[in-house]
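User: Hey, quick favor. My workstation is busy. Could you predict this chain's structure for me?
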Amino acid sequence: MVSLLSGLSVAEGLTLCHRVVDGLCGREPPHRGDYSASWSSDEWRELLDSLAALFRRAVGADSSNEEVVAGLSHAGSSHAQSVLTVLTARRQEIRDALLGRSNFISSALLQDFDWQLKLAVSSDKSSSLHTPLLSLSLDVRDNTALQPVTMEMNREELNTLVSSLEAANKVVMQLK
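Assistant: No problem, here it is.
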C-alpha cells in the first residue's frame, strides 16, 4: 500500500523511503513515533512492509525504472519519483544487503559430488520392483571442515531436488 505515502509531503516521503532502505540494510529503520499523526498502527506496518517488499522485489528482479514507476501508478507521480530516486541511488546497497542475508543462511559450500544410478529389482515387500534409484554423495565444506553427505532418491525425489536447485539458482542469478 505505497499509496499511503500521499499522507506525507514529498520531502518526508523521500526521507521515509531512505529510512526503510536503512532498515533493509541492517541500520536504524524508521520509527512510527516520527509519523504517528499520519497513519494508524496497521497502516504504518502495511506501508513499511509494502515499501520494503517493493525495494526487495525491484532489486531482486532487476526491474527497470519504467517497471517500478508502472507499479507505483497509484502512489502519485511525485511520490513515485521519490521511491525511484531512492531505489536508483541505493540499488547496489540493497543488493549487497540481500546477498548478505542469503549468504548468512548458510556458509556451507559444495566442494565435490559423485552420483550412481542403481536399479532396485526386488525388496522384502515386493518380489519385482524395477525402480531406478540415484545415490548422490556430496562433499560440503562448512568453514574449514569437509562433511560428506550421502542420499538415495527415487525418480520423484530427484525431480523435486532438481526443481528446487533450479529455483534457487534462478533467485541467485536475479540478485547478481
